[in-house]
Every structure is written in C-alpha cells, then in structure tokens.
Design goal:
By secondary structure, the protein is α+β, with helices and mostly antiparallel strands. The chain contains 5 helices and 13 strands. Strands 3-2-5-11-7-8 form a 6-stranded antiparallel beta sheet, with no helix packed on it. It is elongated. The termini are far apart.
Length: 269
C-alpha cells in the first residue's frame, strides 16, 4: 500500500487482478451473442417455400403458354402461309344454273332530228301534233336519233328500221344503204364509232348487229346515206317513246331492241 497526496491511498494491482481485467480472447463467446443476438426460428423453411412457390408458378405458366399456343402453331394464318379467302359464293357450285330466259324489250326514240352536213348543233327536231309527221333524210342530210336505255338488265341491243310506204312511180322500190354511227356525246361527231350498214327497201325492215347498250344511259345515233342520190322518206305515227303503243311495232320508224344475251337475238327474231 502506498500513500499518496491529499490523503488518497493507492494500492497496486496483482498479476491475478490484471488477468481478470483483461479483455476476452477470440475463443471466448462474446457477451452480445449470448444475450442480445436476435433469433429467427424457421427462417430457412420460409425461403425454401418461397422458392418452391415461384418455381411451381413458372412451371404452370410455361405449361399454360404451350397449351394455348400449340393449336395456333399449325394454323396457316400464324405460320405465314398465304391462304385464299373464302368465296362469298361458297356452296353455289352445287346449284343448277338456270338457262337464260331470253327476255327482250323494245324501246322507241325519244327524239328524231335532221341536220345538214356536220352541223349537228344546228339540227332540227321533228315535231308534229299526235306524233304524225313525215321524216325525210338522205344525201347531205343525216338523221339524228336519240334513245334512252331503261334499266332492265338487258344490255345487248340491236337497231331496226322499218319503212312501209308503197312504191310509186316517182319513188321506185329501190334498195338504199344507210350507215349507222354511234355518237359518244350528244353533239360529238369527231369521235363517232361506226356500227353497221343497213339495206332498206320499202315494205321491208333491216336490223343492225348486236352492240353493247349500258342501262340507264342515253345513246345517240347518226343515220347517214353514203350515196348522194339516197332518199329516205316515211311517215311518223306513234313511233316515239311518248306516243308508242303495241301497234307501233308494225308502223314505219326506228326501234331499239334489248336482249338478255347475245344468243337470244336470233332466237327471239
């Protein structure tokens, strides 16, 4: 024991006291691990359950995707193979095709006019009370005839001219040739298309070849005699669309005949 200042007595430590006060060695168990270390009981089983659940979910999803995509794998639409669209007439190939009924219809001109040379704009329309007048053309004078094609689905047409005048001494019964031209427009002679040449004699009729006549359209025709000495004269009586009747078929004049098919033209005549 040693004396010290201020009356404080200092006692030196022994070797045993120093060993007791020394810090614990690395082999000794720390106090914190014994008293303060938290315990997680069952944490290993929880992680295992989570991993197994994820694996099962991924497996089920993969199986589901394979099940849904397998039928489409052989589909031409998904495989990029071009396919023919189904026909809207599917099944109609077994239906028997009906033969054409060979329907026909006759129309008469809406207007009849004459013009000199190529002056189609200065044409003179034929007017008469009760549709009774005399129609004359030939030489430098051409006939201008306008037809309306009704919408009956009959778009194969012929033009017919019939003259019933009795021959006289001043008008012998000679044959006249008339060229028929189709005008694309009402007053367009520059683009006219030749249709046919008809041979006329009095008390006879002549019919042109078949041509296409679209429904619900107006068609314009030029009737012209290529010979300068040609002269066509006949009476008009009930042979326009405004005054035509069943009796008009036997009168002198012009008519437009519509047919269901080309094969029906000669069958109907």
């Amino acid at each position: 024991m040693f004396a010290s200042r201020n009356g404080i007595i200092y006692e030196p430590l022994s070797v045993d006291d120093e060993l007791d006060a020394a810090p614990p060695s690395s082999t000794s168990k720390p106090i914190f691990s014994t008293y303060f270390q938290p315990t997680f009981r069952g944490h290993g089983n929880g992680w295992s359950f989570l991993l197994v659940s994820c694996a099962i979910s991924l497996f089920i999803s993969a199986v589901n995707m394979i099940f849904l995509s397998a039928p489409n794998a052989y589909s031409p639409a998904h495989a990029g193979i071009p396919t023919k669209a189904p026909s809207v007439y599917l099944g109609l190939e077994t239906v028997e095709i009906e033969k054409p009924l060979c329907r026909s219809r006759t129309s008469f001109p809406k207007t009849l006019s004459v013009f000199q040379g190529n002056d189609v704009k200065g044409r003179t329309q034929i007017h008469a009370p009760g549709d009774k007048a005399r129609f004359d053309f030939g030489g430098e004078v051409s006939a201008y005839i306008e037809f309306y094609v009704p919408d009956y689905g009959l778009e194969n047409c012929t033009l017919t001219g019939k003259f019933h005048d009795e021959p006289t001494a001043s008008r012998p019964n000679k044959v006249s040739e008339i060229d028929i031209w189709v005008l694309p427009d009402k007053e367009d002679l520059s683009s006219k298309v030749f249709l046919d040449t008809l041979r006329f004699s009095r008390r006879n009729e002549s019919t042109s070849r078949v041509f296409y006549c679209p429904s619900r359209t107006r068609m314009y025709f030029q009737w012209h005699c290529p010979n300068k000495d040609c002269s066509i004269q006949f009476p008009l009586e009930g042979v326009t669309s405004m005054t035509a009747s069943a009796a008009s078929l036997s009168n002198s004049g012009f008519r437009l005949s519509q047919y269901e098919g080309v094969e029906c033209v000669h069958r109907t005549e």
